[in-house]
Amino acid sequence: MKVAVLKGGRSLERGVSLRSGARVEEALERLGHEVVSLDAGADLVKRLTAERPDVAFVAMHGPGGEDGTAQELLEILGVPFTGPGVAACARCMDKVLAKHELRAAEVPTPDWFAFNETAFRELGAADALGGIEERLGFPLVVKPSRGGSALGVKFAAAASEVPAALVSAFSYDDRVLLERFVEGRELAVSVLGGEALPIVEAIPTGGDRYDFEARYEIGRTAFACPADLSEADTVAVTEAALAAYEALGCAGFSRVDLILAEDGPQVLEVNAIPGLTDTSLLPQAAEAAGLSFEQLVEKILDLALNPTAA
Amino acid sequence: MRSSAMRDLMAVTARPEVISLAGGLPDTSTFPPKSFAAQMTRIAQESAAEALQYGPTEGFEETKDCILQVMGAEGMLPEPEDIIVTTGGQQAIDLVCKTLVDPGDVVICEAPTYPGAVPVFCSYQADVVQIECDAYGMRVEDLEGTLARLAAEGRRPKFVYSVPSFQNPAGVTMSFERRLRLVELARQHELLVVEDSPYGLLRYSGEPLPPLYQLDGGDFVIYIGTFSKILSPGIRLGWAVAPPPVMEKIVLGKQASDLCTSTLTQYFVREYFAEGRWREYIESLVGIYRERRDTMLESLREHFPAQATWTEPEGGLFIWATLPEYIDTSDLLAKALREDVAFVPGQAAYVDGRGRNSMRLNFSGVDGGEIREGVRRIGKVISEQVELYEALTGEQAVAPPRDDAEDTNVLPFRKTGEA
């Protein structure tokens, strides 16, 4: 089969995407497929039209590749592609939109308030910060709404730290959210074809919180898979993850990040196209389920070509 | 190893549409292609077999002759047997660490320090201690305190790493008095100093200062030089000068790393120096870079908000700018990249997460027009963040005093006088 691997692009997660893409390409070659490697740029449509691949493996992360943009183009060109469709990608990439959908579907997610830059610049939203801080408590988390990974995510321990955190978050997007900080275990549930893989737990080894640095660096975070959880917790976490996956309309594969708090799981976000590097969580979860990286890649391709066969 | 996030951000700066003030690139576009072609042709015709062969681990004597000319131009006269030719100055840093550093050993460097040295120190698991810089380079008086503190803890630093002239990234130059004091301290404590001097001959204003190596005579100072900034970084030719016991180990390390430095590029340097115009070429670079430095300083004054400060280097390739504390330059870079412009976030020059509100700007790699446009775009995103912060806090952030010649105690600062 002729498989186009879409990777790179202009997003800030270009580097991670190139690593995911390269790893997928190696696996595809070992599986005997013909690989067309595409670093997504101005010639993407031209190259796809010329190459006419049977299927596209989308290994792009962040805005541009994970937000439905590349998927929209693939739909227009009639090329089947891996992972979630246009609408699900758009919902997952926008954390504010995703949280509204989760709330509507009664999937637990931490309380939040969202603002765009105009609100602060023109509508005096700063005057509402005190009330927000009172409702959410400290520490609170400030995040850009659209943006992959943990880029621009800051923790504010006190009111005095909120403005600088907002300035940072607004560097990535014109909409940001302030979210209640939920204390608990950090878990990731990878979903493959509508089925949950074993749960991964991220255990920070340094004093640092789970951030962009740690996320791709061997040694900064220890991972346990399957996570050491009680039967009841495993069920609750898995159910919440699958409900989130459903609520956002994901297909093929995705990864749901959650916090397991004392009173149960809270969904933080859903990554439409999670990383596939050698330190990424989805491949680890697949391995724990007995799937080699090649088998995982083959399965993802199957799901793209036969969506109902899941 | 650290800083993968930075690496990922830097991966995006490589897009062709981005004006990059992030690199440390010299301008190689003015090197005459004809002369390049003639030299390579001569090598091919006269010594193809030798040029394609392995060479001695220490480097060719002829290469060392060229190195002696370069060092001689700054008043240094090392013994040829104290010199090793390396694959760029970067390998020299690596070899020095490989020779001297065991995990947990203390290495002292400047704050900020050369961002490219940080991963080397970290990969040898050095415990890096940084000494603040001000307008006159490393605060050697602080170094004395640090040495005393370390001695009290029973720890002996392996070496002090310094870029005394036109420092990367701060652009500052160590004063004569501090140079003397540093060399004196080295002697007193029997402490090695690694002097990294890639830009010594690239001075655009002010009077030349003697290298640490010259002041010390090579007893406690290990000198690292390179052809990267005065000829070409693409030929990957640098060197180290070290006292014999250290040199012996460096040679062993070099042998283990890559046997020898490229024979072909050493032949090229030999031919190039034989032409006898290398000083002339450096003079032409000095002319180009002086103009670009002035353009960047002028653009900074025009486009950066009043809350920003920066250094005014007398040579080298970099300016160090510092913004209000609430601006994280890693996040700012994300915003700047949307405007297709890049710089190096200050955090890369520290081992402890400091430097978050500073940035390194390079003025040698792109022309005046791009410098102006690049600085304008960065100034715009900074101003947007400053305005946003003021809207969020309802306060006008207080700008630091401008043009205060006395305020040179710590970076950041803005110096008055000649530029």
Describe this structure in words.
The complex is a heterodimer of chains A (310) and B (419). With 310 residues, chain A is an alpha+beta fold. Chain A folds into 3 domains: 2-82, Rossmann fold (3-Layer(aba) Sandwich), CATH 3.40.50.20; 91-108 and 183-309, D-amino Acid Aminotransferase, Chain A, domain 1; 112-180, 2-Layer Sandwich (Dna Ligase, domain 1). Chain A has helices at 14-30, 44-51, 69-77, 86-93, 95-104, 117-122, 129-136, 162-169, 212-215, 231-247, 281-288, 293-305, and strands spanning 2-7, 34-39, 55-58, 112-116, 140-144, 154-156, 175-180, 185-192, 195-196, 200-204, 221-224, 253-261, 264-271. In chain A, the strands form 3 sheets. In chain A, strands 8, 9, 10, 11, 12 and 13 form a 6-stranded antiparallel sheet that branches. In chain A, strands 4-7-5-6 form a 4-stranded antiparallel sheet. In chain A, strand 8 and strand 9 form a beta hairpin. Chain B is globular and about 70 Å long. In chain B, helix 8 links the parallel strand 7 (192-196) and strand 8. In chain B, the strands form 3 sheets. In chain B, strands 2-9-8-7-6-3-4-5 form an 8-stranded mixed sheet, with helices on both faces. Chain B has a 4-stranded antiparallel sheet with strand order 10-11-14-13, with helices on one face. Chain B folds into 2 domains: 4-28 and 280-393, Aspartate Aminotransferase, domain 1 (Alpha-Beta Complex); 51-274, Type I PLP-dependent aspartate aminotransferase-like (Major domain) (Aspartate Aminotransferase, domain 2, 3-Layer(aba) Sandwich). In chain B, helix 1 (4-13) runs parallel beside helix 12. Chain B is an alpha/beta fold. Residues 402-408 and 414-419 of chain B have low confidence and may be disordered. Helices cover 43% and strands 14% of the residues of chain B. In chain B, 51% of the residues are buried. The interface between A and B is medium-sized, with 30 and 28 residues.
